[in-house]
Amino acid sequence: MSKMNFKEQLKKYAELIVKVGVNVSKGQTIVLQISVTQQELAHLIVDQAYAAGASEVIVKWADSHVAKSFLEFAPLDRLVDVPGYTTSEVEDWVAKKASRISVMSDDPDAFAGISAEKIASRQKSMGQALRPLRKATQNNDVSWTVVAAADTAWAELVFPELKGDAAVSRLWEEIFKTTRIDQADPIKAWHQHDLKLRTKAEELNQEQFSALHYVAPGTDIVIGLPKNHLWEGAGSFDAQGFEFMANMPTEEVFTAPDSRRIDGYISSTKPLSYAGTTLSGMKFTFEAGKVVEATAEQGEDVLQHLLATDDGAKSLGEVALVPDPSPISQSGITFYNTLFDENASDHLALGSAYPFSIKNGTKMNDKELADAGLNLSQTHVDFMVGSADMSIDGIREDGSKVPVFRNGDWA
After folding, report:
1. Rounded to 5 degrees, what are φ and ψ at 267?
2. Exposure winner among 43, 121, 224, 379, fewest CB in 10 A?
3. Contact 228, 358 (CB under 8 A)
């Protein structure tokens, strides 16, 4: 097969996002959230979505410069005031069961220099306003996907030895590689990958461990798992029965922890890009499911504001297993972007659990979910904890242990 040029690769990428990412079906409403700098990709996604039968494609353009100016200059009362038309729009998307495509491309340090209080206040008010959308997404009521696109500031951070177009081209190369666009039939390659991760999730579901014990440098923690928890890998199914791929790339199998049974300490192993700032060197100590101490070498003030979002922000909502030999990890690249870095490493998430991570969870109300051990919060922030030195044991109900990971890979 002759090597595709960039335009051909980008068109294949748009097709993959539409056909595998959200699996567009006839008559659907699609909401595309994308930066103003990614117009070419946006147009290709719009065209592919209509070709696949979408009845409406709504494009929500994002501009990090405008967003930063708003954070910097707007008074605090205006920052926390989310206008009614924003919540009405979100309610309209939920009512139409709109599928969501989110394209990440922004500078991970886009909001550097903005006060942590302003960022936290805005995150909190938007989190409350977007609650119906978050709930529909976390319940898998609708199909949704998060993908990436290369942009200059992000590319130069990942590849500091390159500048401008050279950095952007190099980052696109990695995006295409990790999403299998460089393969002869990317869609077929994704179906095969989906099957592999689904098989691993099924093996863990058979075990129904009571807890996981993580040990690595700077880490010794036991994380409980709720009864009837469900591991999931690669593809998910929405309420209409359509399969979709929530993240591309993805190398993880994941479930929800029992947020009442987390004890010990754990250290992050990669930087985290959160709310336009970089957090690194984080260490958390948990007692009875709650963070009782947290520090960071970089971005500690932002971390403390994150943990103060609500009570659930101090506990965990996701445990995800990713073998260190995964392609993204072996690339040796730190992407400063959770979509990629979480797929290079075992990771956890502060904040809300996905209701589908427990049997019949999508039919439960908040109290029933909490009673089952699932964490409730208006935030969900992944952070990376895995390494080639990590070992994980599954703990059965009778206290016996089964090796799950050794030296960062499946045991």
Report:
1. -115, 145
2. 43
3. yes
